[in-house]
Amino acid sequence: MFCPGPIVLKFMMKNSLQIGVLLCLLVSCTHKEQRELTPWGTPVDAEENVSSSAASSTKEGGKGICLLPEIIANGELIVLTVSGPDTYYDYRGHGMGVQYMMAEQFAGKLGVSARVELCKDTVEMMRKLGEGIGDVIAVQLPTQRQSSGKQQESLRFCGANDKKKGTSWAVNKENVALADSLDRWFTAEMPAKTLAREDYLLSLRLTHSATYIAHASSYTPKTSTFNHLFQRYAGAAGLDWRLLAAQCYQESGYDPGARSWAGACGLMQIMPTTADRLGLARSDMFDAEKNVAAGARLMGMLMREFSDIPNTSERINFALAAYNAGSGHVRDAMALARKHGGNPHSWASVGQFILKLRQPEYYQDPVVRHGFVRGTETFNYVQSIRRRYGGG
Fold it and tell me: Of 33, 124, 251, 289, which one is the catalytic site residue?
């Protein structure tokens, strides 16, 4: 039988004491309340003052609501909104509307991008917020209602607000840290400043050459040094080269280095995402010939897309409108013309509904799928090119 000596006994007693301490620590840790950690390892409540009970209740509810640290880790703030001139609309591939633009600014403060989840109405926005499909409702909701339901009770009003009207943005009531961050960020003068910036961008259509071309009156294709390019590529789109020249002048004033604030580049003001679709390398967007060729290809695609318009001259009008505003908005105007007894294949009729898509009773109509559009600009775009071209 083995009998340990005095030195061995001392060693065993010393290590037994250390093991005992470790066991006590492990036992105490198993009884301590677990704290939810951010992706970078710090406790949520320590970083953002969010209670662990709120975080765990959200998680147990199965709604997948993203708390502020998760939003930052994901690199994306999902903005719930509706189509409208004050809320959100697409302008040549760029999101506009004061409420959205403010949400974009807040996302920038967090160091993330803003992504829009467009909804039909308030009920859909509140439902999607509760399901974790979106992070913030960037619409001025009434903070007091005569009859508040469960959806209304699940909101935490915060961020951008209008105290005179008693309206505000909202987040899920569990998202305390996000609400606090929005409240610290928002200032009373922010809506007016954002509106001023929107008006400035839309009225000037800035280019690197600082040339304002939206209402330029002097035009003749003879003044262009790019006529050989229009002549070379217009035929593939089924267009008269002079019409392509008139369109190019409307887009860039014949400036091959033009770049709009929205990111459109070159003679034909091609957006980067459109360039990808057309096979135009982004590094070649300011190459005059490649840009004109891409613009002609796009017009050719739009002419084929509107092949249901039997008259070629009319089809050109629809293609020009789609080049400016997107095919979806043009199709919406066609649907409205059809609904109201107009001719959906006549620009004289459809152009009037392009103009009306600025009004809620039209852009909120059930037949409209793409919402609000700055129809005045699109209408004038077509009219100006046609007037310069002189081709009827």
Answer: 251
Specify the amino acid at residue 11. Answer: F
Exposed/middle/buried for residue 21 (C-beta within 10 Å: 0-12, 13-18, 19+):
exposed
Q: Global pTM?
A: 0.73
Torsion of CA 239, 242, 244, 245, to 10 degrees: 170
251 as an active site residue: the answer is yes
* N-to-C CA span, the chain: 114
Report the C-alpha gap between 386 and 392 in whole angstroms.
7
> Residue 312 in contact with residue 250, Cβ under 8 Å?
no
pLDDT in tens, 15-62: 444 444 444 444 444 443 444 433 323 333 333 333 333 333 333 333
Residue 222: Cβ-neighbour burial (10 angstroms; 0-12, 13-18, 19+): exposed
**342 vs 18, residue with greater confidence:** 342
